[in-house]
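Appendix C: a fully annotated inverse folding record. The material below is reproduced so that readers can follow the format used throughout the book. The structure is listed first as tokens, followed by the designed sequence.
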């Protein structure tokens, strides 16, 4: 099987053995254009050509590296960041191919937050009308999602909105490119496009937002495809790009976080999977429906058919650490890291790990990319409290690491208080490489952490879905049991450090609740935006 994972800055392909999930070969392709900026700092765009290049470059290279004949591959599946969404013509042509000079023609990346005002209007109207779908999203939908971004397109470039026959997730668009068949997967439709109980929000509701928005759902496709299903067969074009046999199974599209649950063999109720990278997405299954404040959504069949899939997340995690290193680390630290033969991140982590819990006298709010859960407000911003003239870079760095663990604890506690128990936390993603960070999470959360035993979790998860689509396994749980990889209780909490972190977490909650209404932080952002004009 071939699994292809589309991330924020690169795409990666992995070749996986169906029998046991062994990863035989992989390749990564860095996007040439990466994250494309827009008119304001809150914009984040991407290029379809970068996505196509992953199929042309990474897939053949992964197969070559694996040392298998292309004829041995029986299926391919992909996963994507979400909500990464684009306007397209009826034949799937992205509008950015036709109108490259117009920002709204380009795909809007998941972390495009410029539609916050549109999300605010959707939330206000939904609350006023008592829309039954709103509690399924913790009481607020996000500026990152399909409807907010679609309303922004309509109101800021109505001509392009009218030209867009399709408003389609990249997760579905890339499957269209591979198979020639347009599908819409139940995962992104449910979590990112407010599809609940067989329907999208009503035309009446949409018209109340803007009369021209009434027919928006016609751009979203119709019948939804189940996860693990076969979207179609690899087309001649897809075969030419990838070097794989024409006609092999192409699985229904999916989201990077959600396929990772299968890769970690963590698809049973009570297993929360934290995919930690530039951001963190938390997903888990439950047997029953519950309404969790500030969750990103709960969707029937959203992760595994037959269960309720829950999602929450943090808008920035690794991005916070990268921002600090890129902007606030003295040259002497960079030189010391180079002399030691380690990265600046590794150097700062080593220095931070030598401190006792709380020795820096700091606490930070992890809102540098806004707050996805549980406040659902992307106009919030980061806060660091307690700095003095003697505060060192490694101390601020440690406070930032800890802040993301505190933010995760808020989410876990909110789930448990809402009747959704978290029995096991399973960590995946690039930040697994930082053992100090993982131990910090175990201590802060007071829970043992299991970890995925793969460096390519989403791509492995996609390959597992491809195995189901190709008929090698009857369902996702059985494929995950055979092909998924998890190390149980890899990190366990230290009682002394956990008690010390309880004190810091109490201060974090004071700051969290004080700034939660956004009054000060929103005013500062407004001043910034006015000045930047």
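Designed amino acids, in order:
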């Amino acid at each position: 099987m071939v699994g292809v994972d589309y991330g924020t800055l690169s795409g990666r392909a992995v070749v996986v053995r169906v029998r046991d999930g062994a990863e035989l070969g992989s390749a990564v392709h860095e996007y040439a254009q990466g994250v494309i900026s827009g008119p304001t700092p809150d914009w984040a765009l991407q290029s379809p050509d970068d996505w196509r290049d992953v199929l042309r470059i990474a897939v053949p290279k992964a197969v070559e590296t694996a040392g298998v004949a292309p004829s041995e591959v029986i299926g391919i599946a992909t996963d994507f960041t979400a909500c990464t969404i684009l306007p397209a013509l009826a034949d799937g042509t992205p509008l950015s191919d036709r109108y490259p000079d117009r920002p709204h023609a380009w795909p809007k990346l998941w972390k495009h937050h410029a539609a916050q005002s549109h999300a605010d209007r959707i939330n206000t109207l939904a609350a006023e009308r008592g829309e039954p779908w709103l509690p399924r999203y913790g009481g607020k939908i996000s500026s990152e999602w399909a409807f907010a971004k679609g309303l922004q397109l309509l109101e800021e470039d109505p001509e392009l909105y009218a030209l867009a026959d399709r408003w389609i997730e990249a997760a579905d668009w890339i499957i269209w490119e591979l198979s020639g068949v347009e599908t819409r997967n139940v995962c992104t439709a449910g979590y990112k496009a407010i599809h609940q109980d067989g329907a999208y929000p009503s035309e009446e509701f949409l018209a109340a937002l803007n009369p021209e928005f009434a027919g928006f759902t016609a751009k979203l496709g119709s019948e939804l495809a189940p996860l693990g299903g076969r979207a179609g067969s690899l087309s001649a074009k897809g075969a030419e790009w990838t070097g794989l046999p024409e006609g092999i199974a192409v699985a229904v599209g999916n989201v990077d976080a959600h396929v990772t649950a299968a890769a970690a063999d963590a698809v049973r109720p009570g297993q929360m999977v934290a995919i930690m990278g530039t951001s963190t997405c938390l997903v888990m299954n439950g047997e029953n429906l519950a309404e969790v404040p500030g969750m990103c959504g709960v969707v029937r069949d959203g992760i595994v058919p037959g269960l309720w899939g829950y999602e929450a997340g943090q808008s920035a995690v690794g991005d916070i650490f990268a921002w600090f290193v890129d902007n606030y680390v003295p040259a002497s630290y960079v030189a010391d890291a180079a002399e030691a033969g380690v990265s600046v991140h590794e150097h700062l982590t080593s220095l931070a790990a030598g401190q006792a819990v709380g020795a820096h006298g700091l606490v930070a709010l992890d809102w540098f990319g806004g707050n996805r859960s549980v406040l659902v407000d992307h106009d919030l911003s980061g806060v660091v409290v307690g700095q003095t003239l003697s505060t060192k870079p490694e101390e601020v760095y440690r406070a930032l690491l800890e802040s993301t663990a505190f933010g995760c604890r808020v989410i876990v506690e909110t789930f448990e208080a809402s009747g959704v128990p978290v029995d096991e936390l399973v960590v995946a993603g690039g930040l697994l490489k930082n053992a100090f960070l993982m131990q910090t999470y175990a201590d802060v959360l007071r829970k043992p952490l299991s970890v995925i035993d793969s460096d390519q979790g989403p791509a492995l998860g996609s390959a597992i879905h491809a195995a189901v689509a190709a008929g090698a396994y009857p369902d996702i749980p059985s494929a995950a049991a055979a092909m998924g990889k998890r190390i149980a209780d890899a990190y366990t909490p230290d009682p002394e450090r956990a008690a010390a972190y309880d004190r810091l977490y109490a201060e974090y909650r004071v700051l969290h609740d004080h700034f939660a209404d956004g009054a000060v932080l929103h005013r500062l952002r407004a001043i910034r935006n006015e000045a930047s004009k």
